[in-house]
Specification:
Length: 510
């Protein structure tokens, strides 16, 4: 195994640095939820410690629970970080109890924001983070609009000040709801102010896909149907549904992971080179990918998909229950905990190349990766003994838990032989760089505050992703056959293995 060597050009050091965001107030609806405590406040505090946000940054949490400012600060205090820095940062963290369905809440919110602007110098810049159910998005935005809060306040310069809205996933529960949600929201807020967040797009290796493809000329010439046999995108978890059973049983693996996260990864891998990385070009190219995805007819779904549910098994040597035995799961549930889909892109670059997407819970281990499997060499010059097989080259982009990139290639075994052995050349983020990758939410929050929507989903792309997955959901809902199962702690259902083997392909081992 060989580690990559990182080279830097000292002449370019310091020419590019992350921009410090403008002063602003971030209003978090649903602030008493787990997301605020685990992700949002720690990410904002990390940005503060790196001086990537203005010292005037303020956070105002809103939910029904009756916290004081002090109680809220104690609840959301991160476990790590400098205590003195936290004391300084937390002075700008506030809380307001209120029901987001009532107009009175927004009247008080307006007064509180004006008070924060005056006392903290946040200059009328506002970011509204909606960490609530998607059905509540139009309600909240409607009330904000009625109070004039979706535009900078009258005492701020409209040319220099801004108001933006982050919408937490899921964005709709099917194509019809997502389409309606987009229409309802766009009546209140222009697309330019909307930031639909997908935390997968903030992961370092996901961002590096574009850099890897378009900054290295050795890869782009072979990034097409002539040289690539197929692509596997995997998001496997060893955990079960845990406390999310009530939510998960209404969604399942396809909606929870494939429709959003994995299709986003597919788009980044398959997209054409954007005209620029600084405007909407990246999102334009991603939308083109979604438009090119083949939409299956009802009779085509079964041959292009596999779904299953985990049964009892063992994780790390300990017994775990099956999905139907989990708390808050209906014993009659037909919700899939494993989903595999074969997608095709009907365009010039990728015609005939299958994209295999799989995700599942209670699998052998936790891993998220993209594997680009190249076509085998056309002639076997080495290792030509009977029974030998020359495997293809594989490029793997590891998204988690260890972030990095590896390439598998064949090399001659030393000595008086003509046989080959497969070796991996590995690049590991943790080994190669002195600083750890920033949290995904930190990157995305910072991008929103500086007005960069590149890593956020646009409304048309969300609807296009639902257009592709809705026929699969409909076909599965109409299917009354027994749902396949797989033993917890294994690679997944046997049906998924034979599905690939029938084409002469194999899943990468988890």
């Amino acid at each position: 195994m060989t580690n990559a060597t990182i080279e830097t050009n000292p002449l370019r050091e310091g020419l590019s640095s992350a921009r410090t965001a403008d002063p602003c107030t971030i209003v978090i609806f649903g602030a008493s939820g787990d997301l605020t405590e685990r992700m949002l406040i720690p990410s904002l505090f990390a940005l503060s410690e790196q001086r990537l946000v203005a010292p005037e940054l303020s956070v105002l949490g809103i939910s029904r629970r009756p916290f004081s400012d002090g109680e809220f600060r104690t609840k959301v205090k991160p476990e790590s970080g400098n205590a003195t820095n936290w004391d300084t940062f937390s002075r700008g963290v506030f809380y307001m109890s209120g029901d987001h369905h009532q107009e009175e809440t927004y009247q008080r919110l307006k007064a509180r924001l004006e008070e924060i602007d005056h006392n903290r110098g946040t200059q009328g810049n506002r970011l509204f983070y909606l960490a609530v159910a998607p059905d509540d998005f139009p309600t909240i935005l409607g009330h904000l609009s009625q109070q004039g809060l979706l535009d900078p306040p009258s005492y701020a310069d409209p040319e220099d000040n801004w108001v933006r809205v982050i919408l937490e996933k899921p964005f709709g529960i099917d194509l019809a709801s997502a389409t309606k949600l987009n229409k309802d929201i766009l009546r209140l807020v222009p697309e330019s102010k909307i930031y639909r967040i997908d935390h997968y797009l903030g992961k370092e290796t996901v961002q590096n896909i574009l850099a890897f493809r378009f900054a290295n000329t050795i890869f782009e010439p072979v990034w097409n149907r002539r040289y690539i046999d197929h692509i596997q995108i995997t998001a496997a978890e060893s955990l079960g549904v845990e406390e999310r059973a009530g939510y998960y049983d209404h969604f399942g693996a396809l909606k929870d992971m494939v429709q959003n996260h994995l299709l986003q990864l597919l788009a980044l891998v398959a997209m054409e080179p954007p005209a620029s990385a600084l405007d909407d070009s990246v999102r334009d190219e991603k939308s083109k990918v979604f438009k090119a995805l083949r939409i299956y007819k009802p009779e085509e779904v079964a041959e292009n998909t596999v779904r299953a549910q985990y049964g009892p098994g063992f994780i790390d040597g300990k017994p775990v229950p099956g999905y139907l035995q989990e708390k808050n799961v209906s014993p009659e549930s037909r919700t899939e905990t494993y989903a595999a889909v074969r997608f095709f892109l009907d365009n010039w670059r990728w015609e005939g190349v299958p994209f295999y997407l799989r995700t599942g819970k209670r699998l052998a281990r936790k891993v998220t990766e993209i594997a680009v499997v190249f076509k085998p060499a056309p002639l076997m010059l080495f290792g030509a003994n009977e029974g030998d097989k020359l495997d293809p080259n594989v490029l793997v982009l590891r998204i988690g838990p260890e972030e990095g990139i590896s390439i598998r290639f064949g090399t001659k075994i030393p000595g008086m032989t003509r046989r080959l052995r497969w070796v991996n050349m590995d690049f590991d983020y943790g080994t190669s760089f002195a600083t750890p990758s920033p949290p995904a939410y930190a990157r995305l929050l910072h991008d929103c505050m500086i007005g960069d929507p590149t890593l956020y989903n646009r409304g048309d792309a969300v609807e296009l992703a639902w257009h592709v997955t809705q026929p699969i959901l409909d076909a599965w809902a109409a299917d009354t056959n027994p749902l396949p199962t797989y033993e917890a702690g294994r690679e997944g259902p046997r049906q998924a293995e034979t599905w690939m083997e029938d084409e002469g392909r194999y899943w990468r081992k988890l």
